[in-house]
Amino acid sequence: MIPTGRLALALAGGLVFALGVALEKLLGAGSLFTGPLIAWDAAVVFFALADLALAWRSRVEVERQVPAVLSVGRANQATLQVRSLLRRTADIELTDDGAPLVEVQGCPARLELAPGARASWRYHLLPTRRGAHQLGNLWVRIKSPFGLWKRQLRVPAATPVRVYPDLEAVRIYERLVKEARDERFTHATRRRGGESEFERLREYTRDDDVRRIDWKATAKKRVVIAREYQLERNQNVVFLLDLGRLMTAESGGLSHLDHALNATLMLSHVSVRAGDHVGLAAFDSSLRSFVPPEGGQHALKKIVRASYDLFPSLVEPDYRAVFATLKAKLRKRALLVLFTQVLDQATLGDLVPLVRSLSPTHLPLCVVFRDESVEELLAPERTEPLDLYTRGPAAAEIQWRERVVEQMGTAGALVLYVKPKELTQQLIARYLEIKARQLL
Q: How many C-beta atoms surround the C-beta of residue 6 within 10 A?
């Protein structure tokens, strides 16, 4: 039982009479304040004990409703269902313990329930790390009838949840496509491809290539008709996830690996919708996980299950051993999307020849993250004299990274040099460009 501010004020009210009694004794006056002091204290004790007895019998039922799978780095909605078991209006406070790596947003909640009434409270859980977690208990505070006490109840509600890469982004994308509201994505996924897979005849538009005009159909219809081709299908897209120490760096509250996984999940979904096969290989000093390329929604589920509990380790990635294994496992040409980070010449010297060796058989696409914290050091508004000592090394670091991108491109790889927060959008755009240009 927790005393409230109202009880503290009631007890403080007796101090007025106690002060009067003290003054009376000091001045040798009568006992004018003694009687009211005794009466006030007796009344406070009586009501406090009566209110305590009534509060002790206060009860409510609380249940947490939360998805079994949460998305990392995203506010996932949860709901508290509450039912009052009291015969009076109840003033209730609710909160959720969450979990060590799951932040609770929107709590504590305060509800006022009529006798026997039900209510729900929506709030959000923000996981900052993938993997298996267990949500803790719920806590309820019920105010007593006179408001002098609050009864605090612990409601056992341990709930196991799994935190995956950003599944919510996939759900949002799918909903927007179905509702035809996201023009950018719906048009992008239907971009016209090369002249390999004919799709349909349609009326010519100003944006069409004149070489696609079907003259026979045009003569028959007496309207200019163009041939439309769809993007090639049944091609392989394999995501290579570096789990080395440099992928532990964070941006926007997520590690570089989490940004890579979110982009992997989203592009996997887009690729499956386009009819392609998707696979995954995760590695550090050895191959940690491998999902061979497959098509359909079950392939997407395999990638999610294989990657949700992968975390970077403080070791150097062994590109040579992993790439040799992949060459043996991947016989058919594939788009290899490599998420990695290169910060020293030795690593670059190992990676460039390996990328060059992949080019004849596969199409490598290297994703290299920009370092926003270093780029901020070159902001124009930084004009203090001491900033010169940071701007110089920052400029040298950025220039070196740009040389890394250039050398990878010279080795035959496509390179996406991108800020982590822009990765998903730009990666999808690059994939669609590759499909439209028939580079794969």
A: 15
Residue 418 structural domain: 236-436
Q: Which residue has the tokens 């794969």?
A: 440
With tokens 């070489």, the residue in question is 211
Interatomic CA distance for residues 152 and 163, integer angstroms: 30
327, 428: one domain: yes
Helical axes 5-27 vs 34-56, angle rounded to 10°: 160
Q: Count of domains in the chain?
A: 4
Element counts in the chain: helices (H) and strands (E): 12, 22
243: β partners? none
User: Quick one: average pLDDT of 119-131?
Assistant: 89
Q: Are 256 and 371 in contact (CB under 8 A)?
A: no
Of 97, 98, 96, 86, nearest in space to 142 by CA: 86
Residue 184 confidence (pLDDT): 45
Share of the chain above pLDDT 90, in %: 15
Amino acid, res. 325: T
Q: What is the pLDDT of residue 187?
A: 46
Q: Residue 86 is part of a domain; what is its CATH number?
A: 2.60.40.10
Query: Position of tokens 């004149």?
Result: 210
Strand 131-135 relative to strand 159-164, pairing: antiparallel
User: What Å distances lie between residue 206 and 165, 201, 209, 231, 414, CA to CA?
Assistant: 41, 15, 8, 21, 31
Average pLDDT over residues 18-31: 72
How far, in Å, CA of 34 to CA of 411, rounded?
96
**One domain for residues 347 and 316:** yes
pLDDT surpasses 60 at 180: no
Q: How far apart are CA 277 and CA 237, in angstroms?
A: 6
The alpha-helical segments, DSSP class H, found in 274-371 are: 297-307, 319-329, 345-358
CATH classification of the domain holding 282 = 3.40.50.410
> Higher-confidence residue: 5 or 109?
109
Within this chain, do residues 148 and 215 fall inside the same structural domain, yes or no? no
Confidence band for 189, pLDDT divided at 50, 70 and 90: very low
